[in-house]
Each structure stands twice: as structure tokens, then as C-alpha cells.
Amino acid sequence: MAYGCIHSRSYPLSTWSKNKVQGNEVAFSLGYGFSICRTANVKCSQKLGEQSLSISRAVEKKPVKKSGKNEHHLWKKRDSAGSGQKALNLVRIVSQLPSEKETVYGELDKWVAWETEFPLIAAAKALRILRKRSQWLRVIQVAKWMLSKGQGATMGTYDTLLLAFDMDNRVDEAESLWNMVLHTHNRSISKRLFSRMISLFDHHSMPEKIIEVFADMEELCVRPDENTVRKVARAFQELGQEDKQKFVLRRYMSKWKYIHFNGERVRVKRHTSDED
Fold first, then answer.
1. Where is this region: Disordered (predicted)?
2. Distance between CA 211 and CA 230 in Å, rounded?
């Protein structure tokens, strides 16, 4: 009896298959890579072996996911969602309060009582809204309250607070704040903050204070803008120090200026009379 081999196992062939087998040749091949052979223990087809080898290689190349520790960031992003509504709510609260410090601080503490972290973004937006509305007393109260909580100690907050002191005629408080900022943030004071302080003293006609701030500005190698240079030069002129006035103008003012001529912006050389 003839046998066919599939996976090295022997099966009896039908009568029709016997007539087709001649010698040791393969009678016919199945469509799945198997061959029907005459004798048992015949090796399977080469195609089956290649398929098995390719499958085994694919299994070996499958990447193994390593189990590692989850990375945790040391910082936490502040969520600004809803901060605009919180800011408007804060503005509405402080606008309806009397001017007493204890009352204002008490309501501000209630505003922040149920927050998991200090709503710094909302408070900063509220300060900008109050500044646009020129509510300088409320700006001072909110900014001082923020600083008392250890929040918002930035150059932007200091600039807004100095402007509010200037508009509310609180020069002494502005000078105290400036001295604190100067000693605390000695090497990181921005040009804008220097210009703000010089503008404050210029607004209240205090040329000696302008010269003091300008001296600190030069010591820290902060170059003033042209508007600040004019105020410093005017302060030297009021103090009768015209030689220093000319020196400051010559050192910091640009040699060129821009004017509009026939609808165009033209650069022309600056004369000494233009610097006064």
C-alpha cells in the first residue's frame, strides 16, 4: 500500500492516486505547500520550511516592551482656564468695598479661600483691568495683598505698583518700594523699572532723586532710552550743572533722529540745539 506524507505522518492513498504514482516521483502537490509522497518518513516541502523559518524570525524580532518607571515632572503648569472670569469677579468685589485695608484684605482672603493654589494668573489679570480703569487705590491694595502672600513679586507687579503710587501721590511709599527692589534684585532690575522711577520723580519735580536713580542705572550698566535721557538732562539743568547735562546728552543721545518729510520717514543728523 502506498502512503502519503503530511508533516512526516503517513496516510493511505486512494486507488486513483496509486495509479498516478510512478516510482519514487511525487504524484501531485497540494495547494498548501504539502506533497503526497510514495513512502513514509519523507521530508516536507522546502516551501513549508522557508515559511516556518520566516515566522520564527518575525517572532524573534518582535520588540519587547521594557517596564520602566513613569517620569514625573517637578513643575506643575498653572491652568489659565477660567482665569478671566475670576479676574472680573475680583474686580467686582474690590470695586464695591470701602477703602479700609482690613475690609479689603478680608474679602480678598475669602476670594482665595477655596483655591487649591494661589490664582496668580487671575490676580495679574485683575491688576491689568484695574490699571486700565485707573482705579489706582484698588491697584495698590490688590498688589500689596499679593506681595503680603508671597505672590507676584515680579518686575511687572513692581512697575504697576510704582505707577499707582505715582498717580495716587504716594511718593514716600514708592521710594520705599524702590529701595527694597534695588537691594533685593540688584542685578536684575529692568530698564523699564528704572525709567518708571525716573518718570515718577520727574512728575513730582524731584531732580536730586532723578540723579540718584540715574547714578544707580549707570553703576549697573543699564543704558537709558532717549526719553529718560532727556529727563536726566533736564534734572541736571535745574540743578545748574550744565556741563553734566551736555555730557549726558552727548553720551547717550543718538547722533541721528528721524523726521517726517513729504510723507516719508527721513533720518537726519541731530544738532546740539535739538538735544536741549
1. 60-80
2. 12
pLDDT in tens, 38-58: 444 444 455 445 555 555 554
Are 177 and 269 within one domain?
yes
Share of the chain above pLDDT 90, in %: 54
Say how far apart CA 173 and CA 134 lie, in whole Å. Answer: 19
Output the nine-digit C-alpha cell for 174: 514708592
List pLDDT tens digits, range 135-146. 999 999 999 999
Q: Is 184 contained in some domain?
A: yes
Indicate the number of domains in the chain.
3
User: Cα torsion for 167, 171, 173, 179, to the nearest 10°?
Assistant: 120
pTM of the model: 0.65
Whole domain around residue 49: which residue ranges?
3-57
- In the predicted structure, residue 93 carries a pLDDT above the cut 70: yes
